[in-house]
Amino acid sequence: MKQVQLRPTERIDDLLTYDLKIIQSDEVFSFSLDAVLLGRFCSVAPKGRMIDLCTGNGVVPLLLTTRTRAEIWGVEIQERLADMAVRNAEINGLEERLHMLQGDLKTIHETLGHGQFDVVTVNPPYLPVPNGEQNANEHFAAARHEIYCNLEDVIAASAKLVKAGGKVAMVHRATRLIDICCLMRQYRLEPKRIRYVHARAGEEAMMVLIEGMKDGKPEIRTLPPLIVYDDNQEYCKELKEIYYGGKSSLEFS
Question: In the chain, where do the E strands start and end?
Answer without folding.
Answer: 10-14, 21-25, 49-53, 71-76, 98-102, 117-122, 162-173, 189-198, 207-214, 221-222, 226-227
